[in-house]
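Ticket #4471: structure output looks truncated?

Reporter: J.K.
Steps to reproduce: submitted the chain below (142 residues) through the standard prediction queue, then opened the result file.
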Amino acid sequence: MRIILDTNIIIGALLKDSTIRRMILDPSFEFYLPEYSIEEIEKHIDIITQRSGLNKENVHLLLHLLLTNIRVVPSEQLLNRYAEARRIIGGIDPEDIPFLALALAIPNDGIWTDDAHFHKQGKVKIWRTRDIILLAGRGGGP
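Returned output as attached by the reporter:
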C-alpha cells in the first residue's frame, strides 16, 4: 500500500517506541511525506526532545531511521496540485494543504493521520492509526 503520512504520525513515532514506530518501519507499506513535514518537525524539535526524553542528536538519528522507509517528496512536485488542495482543505486547516496536494499528485491509498479535521474533506481516503494496525494485521498491502 502507498500511504501518505501526516506529521502527527511521525511525531508520535519520535515521541515513544510504539506500534506507530514499528508500522512506519514495516516494509510492506510504501510511505510518502511532503518535504514540508520535515520543516514542521524541525520547528517542533525542542518539544519533541522534551516530551520524548531523548536529546536532539538521538531524535535526529531516530528521524533518519524512520525516513529509511519514507519517500520525502520535494515541494516543487506538488505545485501543480496545490491550488486544488487549497480549495478542498485550505478553509479547514491550511497547514494540511501539502499533504492533500501530495495525495492528489501521486497514486496512493490515502493519508494516515489522527487529525479528525481531515475527515471533513471527501476527496482522499483517510486512515487512522487503528485502521493501519488492523490492515497490517491482515498482511499489510493489497
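Triage note (M.O.): checked the attachment and the full C-alpha cell line is present. The longest strand covers residues 30-34.
Status: closed, working as intended.
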